[in-house]
Amino acid sequence: xxxxxxxxxxxxxxxxxxxxxxxxxxxxxxxxxxxxxxxxxxxxxxxxxxxxxxxxxxxxxxxxxxxxxxxxxxxxxxxxxxxxxxxxxxxxxxxxxxxxxxxxxxxxxxxxxxxxxxxxxxxxxxxxxxxxxxxxxxxxxxxxxxxxxxxxxxxxxxxxxxxxxxxxxxxxxxxxxxxxxxxxxxxxxxxxxxxxxxxxxxxxxxxxxxxxxxxxxxxxxxxxxxxxxxxxxxxxxxxxxxxxxxxxxxxxxxxxxxxxxxxxxxxxxxxxxxxxxxxxxxxxxxxxxxxxxxxxxxxxxxxxxxxxxxxxxxxxxxxxxxxxxxxxxxxxxxxxxxxxxxxxxxxxxxxxxxxxxxxxxxxxxxxxxxxxxxxxxxxxxxxxxxxxxxxxxxxxxxxxxxxxxxxxxxxxxxxxxxxxxxxxxxxxxxxxxxxxxxxxxxxxxxxxxxxxxxxxxxxxxxxxxxxxxxxxxxxxxxxxxxxxxxxxxxxxxxxxxxxxxxxxxxxxxxxxxxxxxxxxxxxxxxxxxxxxxxxxxxxxxxxxxxxxxxxxxxxxxxxxxxxxxxxxxxxxxxxxxxxxxxxxxxxxxxxxxxxxxxxxxxxxxxxxxxxxxxxxxxxxxxxxxxxxxxxxxxxxxxxxxxxxxxxxxxxxxxxxxxxxxxxxxxxxxxxxxxxxxxxxxxxxxxxxxxxxxxxxxxxxxxxxxxxxxxxxxxxxxxxxxx
Amino acid sequence: xxxxxxxxxxxxxxxxxxxxxxxxxxxxxxxxxxxxxxxxxxxxxxxxxxxxxxxxxxxxxxxxxxxxxxxxxxxxxxxxxxxxxxxxxxxxxxxxxxxxxxxxxxxxxxxxxxxxxxxxxxxxxxxxxxxxxxxxxxxxxxxxxxxxxxxxxxxxxxxxxxxxxxxxxxxxxxxxxxxxxxxxxxxxxxxxxxxxxxxxxxxxxxxxxxxxxxxxxxxxxxxxxxxxxxxxxxxxxxxxxxxxxxxxxxxxxxxxxxxxxxxxxxxxxxxxxxxxxxxxxxxxxxxxxxxxxxxxxxxxxxxxxxxxxxxxxxxxxxxxxxxxxxxxxxxxxxxxxxxxxxxxxxxxxxxxxxxxxxxxxxxxxxxxxxxxxxxxxxxxxxxxxxxxxxxxxxxxxxxxxxxxxxxxxxxxxxxxxxxxxxxxxxxxxxxxxxxxxxxxxxxxxxxxxxxxxxxxxxxxxxxxxxxxxxxxxxxxxxxxxxxxxxxxxxxxxxxxxxxxxxxxxxxxxxxxxxxxxxxxxxxxxxxxxxxxxxxxxxxxxxxxxxxxxxxxxxxxxxxxxxxxxxxxxxxxxxxxxxxxxxxxxxxxxxxxxxxxxxxxxxxxxxxxxxxxxxxxxxxxxxxxxxxxxxxxxxxxxxxxxxxxxxxxxxxxxxxxxxxxxxxxxxxxxxxxxxxxxxxxxxxxxx
Lengths: 722, 686
Description:
The complex is a heterodimer.
Chain A: E1 2-12, E2 25-30, E3 36-41, E4 45-50, E5 55-61, E6 68-75, E7 80-85, E8 89-93, E9 104-107, E10 112-118, E11 122-127, E12 132-134, H1 135-140, E13 154-163, E14 166-175, E15 178-185, E16 190-196, E17 204-212, E18 215-222, E19 226-233, E20 243-245, E21 248-252, E22 254-255, E23 258-267, E24 272-280, E25 287-294, E26 299-305, E27 315-317, E28 320-325, E29 328-336, H2 341-344, H3 367-380, H4 393-414, H5 419-431, H6 438-455, H7 462-471, H8 480-489, H9 492-501, H10 507-519, H11 546-554, H12 558-561, H13 565-579, H14 586-597, H15 602-609, H16 614-633, H17 647-667, H18 669-694, H19 696-710, E30 714-721
Parallel strand pairs in A: 16-20
Antiparallel strand pairs in A: 1-29, 2-3, 3-4, 4-5, 6-7, 7-8, 8-9, 10-11, 11-12, 13-14, 14-15, 15-16, 17-18, 18-19, 19-21, 22-23, 23-24, 24-25, 25-26, 27-28, 28-29
Helix pairs in contact in A: 3-4, 4-6, 6-8, 7-9, 9-14, 10-14, 10-15, 13-18, 15-17, 16-17, 16-18
Chain B: E1 2-9, E2 19-24, E3 30-35, E4 40-44, E5 50-55, E6 65-69, E7 73-77, E8 82-87, E9 92-98, E10 104-109, E11 115-120, E12 125-131, E13 134-140, E14 150-153, E15 159-163, E16 167-172, E17 178-183, E18 197-202, E19 207-212, E20 216-221, E21 226-232, E22 238-243, E23 249-254, E24 258-266, E25 274-283, E26 289-294, E27 298-303, E28 308-312, E29 327-329, E30 337-340, E31 345-349, E32 353-358, E33 371-372, E34 379-385, E35 392-397, E36 403-408, E37 412-420, E38 423-428, E39 441-444, E40 450-454, E41 460-466, E42 470-477, E43 487-492, E44 498-503, E45 508-512, E46 517-521, E47 529-534, E48 540-545, E49 550-554, E50 559-560, H1 562-570, H2 574-577, E51 585-588, E52 595-599, E53 604-608, H3 623-628, H4 631-637, E54 641-644, E55 650-657, E56 660-665, H5 668-674
Parallel strand pairs in B: 1-56
Antiparallel strand pairs in B: 2-3, 3-4, 4-5, 6-7, 7-8, 8-9, 10-11, 11-12, 12-13, 14-15, 15-16, 16-17, 18-19, 19-20, 20-21, 22-23, 23-24, 24-25, 26-27, 27-28, 28-29, 30-31, 31-32, 32-34, 35-36, 36-37, 37-38, 39-40, 40-41, 41-42, 43-44, 44-45, 45-46, 47-48, 48-49, 49-50, 51-52, 52-53, 53-54, 55-56
Keywords (chain A): Activator, Nucleus, rRNA processing, Transcription, Transcription regulation
GO molecular function, one term (chain A): RNA binding
Pfam family, one (chain A): NOL11_N
């Protein structure tokens, strides 16, 4: 649960800094160290505060007649402060400077909108015309020409992030009621312009954004008391005409009849936003409030009334809210914990549990979720219909159907697009995460990809497919053609991943995979396969002696074998425990392990196994025998490693294979020796265990004797210390 | 590193005496404990519960109650009818006063520690004033029939609650009158059985808590004389009871060996109404829990099975550390065994006699873990009985085996032992010098030519042993600045040049035996010394402290050695520091100068100074791992601590020669068989 904690006053504000329209502060920015903030008022002054001490550490002001037009920021790398006054004059100073008149000054050629300072990227200057420069570039030639990009649009809001090593700047502009979003990547010097999807009768009041996994999430507070979410993928190669950004409803700011008229808001974590605004119940006077909302459960978590009024601005740094309240700047600390049922009943574990797979469960979709899903569908459709009220479930489902189709429609439209554009588009589609029927969309995406592969035999997006299969929770039934195509292309790595991840592979496909794995030989060496299931027990050194191994086995003297069983058994077990080499290379072993691990039903698999060519059957049986021997070496009869086959799986497959190929095996001279070895080994095992059973009582007695020996009052023993 | 031939000795028939009573020093860091044989021990909480002081028992001096008064003065009272004050510096009885009321069953000091109340056999409660230099009889309170088994002062010192058979009484201290008399057996009508109030506690709220022989813990309102709550915790008697200083928690001990904690908890979350709730049961003992104590962070219980159990309250612990560990002490923190290395003899110290044994031998060798066939069995040579009621303070056998010395509270004995073939003759040395007694520790020099006697006020006497059987006093060392405390540990160097002595103030003084003068003092360390020894070759003094730190001090150079500084810089392994029993003996291997051999109750360790210290990520007890590794892989895994936990509980370990060790074990099971049968409890069925 999120909660607001105690509040305190950071400082009093002058007449211009107080409540009311046009009042308030210019901005509050983080200071050079933690727990420090830089406050810029709407006049001439900037002040540095240490928050926990409620103490100003420094104060700087420009001359009379000048006015600071852009919030003072701190360059985190050099610990210098940067300010712009009178739109064009840039000042840079540090802690020791007292008089701003005497510090570094540069007059620029265009009006500055804002300076953004990034922790690792240095400051970035955004001009009112939309031009962007890093401070370093700007200082080299302060009078350089700054282009005007946005013509007569007006910048409403801007924000900067670091994406990897490069700074990314996002700003929104307005012109005649239309809102535009610009994303500028500085290093690549690329600029993207988007148009924000229009919303009837309301317009965005405030923006905030964060970046995660190469996707900018832009949140907009609209005048219809709702928060919308817009996803903007950063990976964008095409520089086409301006795209329209669709938005989805994140939060409706209304609680039991009363509506919160938000003025500004901040994101606290993935489930929480804080909104400052006035709460108006019908027929009552509105009260200004600071509120924390949970977007996951769509609930108001906590609120605090602010009777003295605010300037409508809200900042949040280091788990503290800052806002003006009456004539003072107030700080409130908050706590924000991930809300979950577990937390509510006090069973929350420290470690975050991995995200549970998000298959759509149609039965549990409640009405509320359907509203969300419906609206997101609406936005995907790119055609906003008139808002509908939902009356019955059936109605909704009926409505959803055409929308899913519209995803299909979109994919259909892309059918003829160029390969890169096609993949881009799909990536973008996938970036619309958190859609409730996301799984279905992924299924559509894969189907589209596969269809493209089928029509264009040269096209095979290996890495893209691999990425999708590895990162999403898919199943065979969701993309039935995927494995078929992979089989056709002999993409064994993808097949391995599919075998490991899909819970519902038909036996026919499992068999096909097995066959491909057993046959494919030479080129396996080069292929990157996940080896984690084999490296713990296979002797990698031997893998290039593969052929030699077989010679050793085949060259085993068959006549000797006819000798008395018992002596042979000891020799045989000796041989297997010391010198048995893996009959297949590690890559092939890993692939076969994936097959051993997959789920199957004997009845359905058996008919297919009968079709396995004899050579492959023998090789597979040999490998199973090898695994069985390896298992039996350990007292706990388990193989080390992740996803390594269990002894039960090995035995089941062995029996299955023998059942399916029995006649062939009996006839085949190659297999004869293998079968007899196998037989002897199994028999030895059975004997060994039955002997152990017999002497169990004696072993227990030995243990007891050992204890008795301890009870002697005197003994001389040997102790070795190393 | 090497193989040892280990003489595993289990014939030391020590049976530690049961714990009779416990007393936590109010607002202090010490716990006083009395055993059924009359011995009194003091444990220091700050020094990791080290058994700091031991006053050996006395045949006629049983202790039924102990209490701290006037700060750090310790009083005991017992069935002899006397109140005894103990001198904790000289570790002996300071003075005794007759209570004049027959056997004393109980004693309690008031909260300010100025008055003592005793409960006597004749049913009287007597008050004594604690004055400097003793106690003074003040007056009798209202006397009625029935022995007073337990007593408790109200924290405001105005009233005393006293438990007797079938009833409890409350006295007004000012008037001396009985102001309340409560029958405790009222609720048990069907059988006419007497109900013994074994223990009582008086809370500041006016609640009187009693524990009785019916297994009940009862809470009474003394003014109204009504029963407020009654909890039956056991089918047998609840023998002991102790309240925490905050009065929000109590611990009771029962005759089945179980202890229970009761806590005063709100009925509902946030409610003001509180009730006593039985919260935690513990079963650490097998026999009667005769004594319990409640420190601020731990529940302490002592039973007739001789165990002292300290169970920390985890809710009071800030972090996992030394204090947070459950600890059980059964054996003393000092050694009762001495060894004549050359003669292969062991001397065992019992409370009132000594036993001298000769070790057996073998002429075979074997591999690790093998038991070798014996060609000679061990032999019990002599049993020396101490005359008189006093218990033995200390004893020692000389390295050559021909001298045995021991001391009681008032007498010092030296014997000359002669071995003629299989026979042994023992002769008392007639005229021993008159020394300040008792002796707290005895140590023969390595050439068996002199005997060092640790004595009171920091002094050490040096006696010269004369053939064929005599001795004379040579010198007495005293710390240059004086000390009130007795010396409790001694170590002499193999070359006969140095002697190190530790007193109760934990200062280590080193004396020069060649010119009989004080050599230096080891820098003070704020913890108790548990063992020390001087290296035979380098003359480095190795010191083990009760916080498990190890120091090495070079006597010739009068400073810590480089290795010691290195150990302090790197820090010892976490597991080593978290061990809960102190190192009780240190010895060396002359053939391997870099080896230090040390042991505590649960492990034997060879510390190889030439190897790197293990860091916290390494496995400290790595012997079994090393044994599985091939020779080549071992080298990387080796570290300085070679720990063997095979021999437990280990009372003594010493090196006889280069690769021959002697380990004296005392299996707990062997002690248990010596104890009376515990109360039979049904486990299954009807």
